[in-house]
Amino acid sequence: MDNFGLMLLGMSCITFACRFLFFCKKRPFELGEKTKLALSYTAPSVLTAMWVPIVFLSYQHIEQSFFESPFLIAGLLSIILSLKLKSTLLIVVISIMVFITLQLLY
Question: Residues with Cβ < 8 Å from 58, sequence gap 6 or more?
């Protein structure tokens, strides 16, 4: 097995072990309040790290201005919809439909 395979296997084992500790019902494991509060920022941080490069750097590959980028328009729409609606699935479906429509138009 090459280095990539060993690294992939090692990372898989570490990920499984971390998840197993939280979901195993036989081991009593409770996080403290400070840890729970710190972990509550994980999802927004990871999602922000994913969408910022997509939205703000996508227009450079296409011959259009930043404000005409389908990524930006669909992203702004999803933010506005999330402030008004509570259904995450509906927000995602509408945003994706708008994004695909804009991709076809541009």
Answer: 69, 71, 72
